[in-house]
Amino acid sequence: MKRRLLALLACSLGAAHAAVSVTDDAGRKLTLAQPAQRVISMAPHATELLFAAGGGSRVVGAMNYSDYPEAARSLPLIGSNSQIDMERVLALKPDLIVVWHSGNTPRQIAQVESLGVPVFHSEPVRLEQVATGIERLGVLLGTVPVAQAAAKDYRARIAALGERYGKRSPVSVFYQVWDRPLYTLNDAQIASDIIRLCGGRNIFGALKVVAPQVGTEAVVERDPEAILAGKRYDPANPGLALWQPYRGMTAVRRNNLFTVDGDLLSRPGPRTALGAARLCEQLDTARKRR
């Protein structure tokens, strides 16, 4: 028995110091000499993924708006989406930095890459990539069992939603990211993948620009059955009230103007499953109002 315990301990210690390797969302192979112990997150969604993967205690710094889970609120801030405090980054002595390829500026990514610290590019634009992102970070953190369990739970919740709502009659959707000026997203974003999961169709999904600016006239002309918009934080912006004068629109006439939690749709993490469940319910409400 004693020999067996010693052997298990030796294996555990060996795993803690063994090299780990993954391919990130930019298609780059990343190898660490041993699992990361001090990680900096450069995006709120990356912070959530790291915590889900079992690495919450290893995150030593984060970008602004990293406010979930609750423990993330007390993390030292290393900057904002406009500027990084490189001195603080250096002081935190990270052995892994997770960046958001399309959310951080090229200058910011170049700054952290110049430090010689391993960098993982996180860019989940499909629902499945949330699960694979958790799993790969689990490999880099040496927390594979925790990460695999979290990924399995997430996949099961997404699969259940697809089974329940995916084959129901389509609902045409306009997703309003911002109102002045009016912005939406194309199909290359996870929010559109959620809409598809729920049996919806993004009316501007085929546009080539990821976050295109559109005119109210274009939305009225396409006449969506439902309009989704985030919570209104600025009283000066009309939010969904923007559409009230257009009473001939299907979405307005049927009162299919739905408020969504933008964090649950635009931050690719485990909570995406919760946001998807809420959106699926809203689109099903639109079906019932036909």
Explain what you see.
By secondary structure, the chain is an alpha/beta fold. It has helices at residues 2-17, 44-52, 86-91, 106-113, 127-141, 144-165, 190-197, 216-222, 250-253, 262-266, 272-288, and strands at 20-23, 29-32, 39-41, 59-62, 96-100, 119-122, 171-176, 200-202, 226-230, 257-260. The strands form three sheets. The chain has a four-stranded parallel sheet with strand order 4-3-5-6, sandwiched between helices. It has a four-stranded parallel sheet with strand order 8-7-9-10. The chain has a two-stranded antiparallel sheet with strand order 1-2. The longest helix is centred in the middle third of the chain and has 22 residues, at 144-165.
Write the layout of secondary structure elements.
Layout: H1 2-17, E1 20-23, E2 29-32, E3 39-41, H2 44-52, E4 59-62, H3 86-91, E5 96-100, H4 106-113, E6 119-122, H5 127-141, H6 144-165, E7 171-176, H7 190-197, E8 200-202, H8 216-222, E9 226-230, H9 250-253, E10 257-260, H10 262-266, H11 272-288
Parallel strand pairs: 3-4, 3-5, 5-6, 7-8, 7-9, 9-10
Antiparallel strand pairs: 1-2
Instruction: State the helicity in percent bands.
Output: 40-55%
Radius of gyration: 21 Å
- Runs in which pLDDT lies below 50 for 5 or more consecutive residues are 5-14
Please state how the strands of the largest beta sheet are arranged side by side.
4-3-5-6
